[in-house]
Amino acid sequence: MTRASEGFWRRLVRRLTSSNAELVSEQLAHDAEAAGCQQILLARVRDHVHLRGTVQAITLSPEIDKGGLDVDLEDGTGSITLVWMGRRLIPGIEVGRRIDVWGTLTVSAGRRVIFNPAYQLGP
Fold it and tell me: Which tens digit of pLDDT belongs to each residue from 81-102?
C-alpha cells in the first residue's frame, strides 16, 4: 500500500468513526486557520485577537445598568463570550451565523470575554 493510499484510508476511517460534532468542530477550526485567525484555545488574555467562529448562543443580560448582549462564539478549538454593552440586538447576529471578531481578550467572572468587539458577519 502506498503512503497516499494510507492517508486516504486513515481519513476515511476517521470520518466514519467520528461524531458529527467532532467533524463540525474540525471544519470550524480549519476555516479559522485558513482565514489567518487565531484559535480561541491558543488566544492569550490581554492580547488583541482576531477570531472567527460560529454563534452558538445569544443571551440578554438582565441588569439595566450593566446589561448587554452576550454571544457565545465557538471555533472548533474552544469558546469565548462576546459582550456588547448596552445593546439588546445587533441585526444579523443569530445562532449558527459565522462571524469574525477583533478585540482585546479579557477574563470576567471566570469566563473569557471580549467586550464591544469589532465584527464582520460571514455567510
Answer: 999 998 888 999 999 999 999 9
Q: What is the mean pLDDT of residues 103-110?
A: 93
Q: Vertex 71, ends 68 and 76: CA angle to 5°? A: 160
Q: How many C-beta neighbours within 10 Å does residue 44 have?
A: 8
Range of the domain at 23: 3-121
Closest CA to 58 of 68, 44, 45: 68
Measured in whole angstroms, the distance separating CA 7 from the mean position of its chain's CA atoms is 29
Q: Domain tally for the chain?
A: 1
User: What is the Cα–Cα distance from 13 to 40, expressed in whole angstroms?
Assistant: 28
- Domain with residue 97: its CATH number is 2.40.50.140
120: which 3 cell numbers? 464582520
pTM above 0.85, yes or no: no
